[in-house]
Amino acid sequence: MTSLPLTIRHELPVDAAAIERLHERAFGPGRFARTAFRLREGVPPDPALSFTAHVGTFLVGSVKVTPVIAGGFGALMLGPLTVDPAFEGRGIGAALIERSIQAAREDGHDLVLLVGDAPYYARFGFKVLPPGQLVLPGPADPARFLALELVEGVLNARRGAVISARFTPDA
């Protein structure tokens, strides 16, 4: 890990500027055109499921979790996950993901989706979705569209479009 203590806590409004700098360094300006970004646009991340990592007083990582609609039912979209390049490879990203998944389970959520590297996320239980089962609203590599069932078998009932939660009456 690191020689300094790692602290993981809920994301706070005061973290916004530091998180944005991390996202800018990690993903660049092209992040705004990505399908996953567009799904999250206009919908605030769930504060109970979004976390930051701190080494000493420095914010070194962040994970956001945003509600979406998947096949007509509520689901979560994990991401972006960002770790400061100087702190990569020390388990910070894994710690953030584990904390978010644990919080989602405790809050009674049943499905987490993401677009990411299948081999990396497999250790947390994420699996590649069968082609066409759930459809993103823009281009994404199907081998990178992943799901984690927090309730076994929940994907059996999920078919159709994944849309932003801003298009629902409750959003």
Describe this structure in words.
A hairpin with a 2-residue loop joins strand 3 and strand 4. The protein has 171 residues and is α+β, with helices and mostly antiparallel strands. It has a single domain (6-167), classed as Aminopeptidase. The chain has helices spanning 16-27, 35-40, 92-106, 118-122; strands spanning 6-10, 51-55, 58-70, 73-83, 111-115, 127-128, 134-135, 145-149, 160-164. 35% of the residues are buried. Strands 1, 2, 3, 4, 5, 6, 7, 8 and 9 form a 9-stranded mixed beta sheet that branches.
CATH domain fold name = Aminopeptidase
The topology string of helices and strands comes to EHHEEEHEHEEEE
Q: In percent terms, what proportion of residues is strand?
A: 25-35%
Determine the mean pLDDT.
90
Please, what is the CATH homologous superfamily? Gcn5-related N-acetyltransferase (GNAT)
Distance between the termini: 39 Å
| CA-atom Rg in angstroms | 15 Å
Mass-distribution shape: globular
The structure class reads alpha+beta
CATH first level: Alpha Beta
Which structural traits does this protein have?
31% strand; nine-stranded mixed β-sheet
